[in-house]
Amino acid sequence: MRVHLKSDIKAEEFSKLLLNIGDGKLLEEGGKVHIPRNLCDLVHDLNSLTEVIYPALNEKGIQCTSWLRERAILTPTNGLAMNINNKLLEKLPSKILKYESIDSVVEAEEAIRYSVKFLHTLNPPRMPPRLLYLKIGAPIMLLRNLNQPKLCDSTRFYMKTLYKYVIEATIFTGVGQGESAFIPRIPSYYPFQFKRLQFPVKVCYAIPSTKLKGKV
């Protein structure tokens, strides 16, 4: 992210701005926050935004993990992040693979109340999607702790190889940067005893802002 870039001469000013926003010191009338023009590039549509953040994605995005580590689009909702990620995924030249989850209720009596068809429609923010589309070269974010301190919730990876039941990826944030890791398909659970067997990851060109709270 921008506040992590040592070569950005405006990074310190931008970091202070973020702290002031978080402390509520910059609120104007109507609850709006004024961001100085010298600290941002204004765009007027989503396509322009993705081009500014990920220029020449089909070339740079599949060659350099440091380039991916330095950027992300923050969104207010999980749905918007998913839409952006799907659009950017299409730009990569590698073959897209679709992974379908296996959804089920934990308690047998719950099957009467919650059909498999209904479970397929659920898309909670902290669970992987029912249909997970992945491409070699795309960034992914881990959605839960697997093996601390390296394989933690919100760790980001660069996908190297996609297998039927395992993803081989390179860690590019947090502890273990540059190391390879293997991510299996595992169950994720929902509050009413629903579980989804799927890779515990999401593509992360765009990330819901709540996912990075306290980690920027």
TrEMBL record:
<dbReference type="InterPro" id="IPR049163">
    <property type="entry name" value="Pif1-like_2B_dom"/>
</dbReference>
<feature type="domain" description="DNA helicase Pif1-like 2B">
    <location>
        <begin position="117"/>
        <end position="157"/>
    </location>
</feature>
<protein>
    <recommendedName>
        <fullName>DNA helicase Pif1-like 2B domain-containing protein</fullName>
    </recommendedName>
</protein>
<dbReference type="InterPro" id="IPR027417">
    <property type="entry name" value="P-loop_NTPase"/>
</dbReference>
<dbReference type="Pfam" id="PF21530">
    <property type="entry name" value="Pif1_2B_dom"/>
</dbReference>
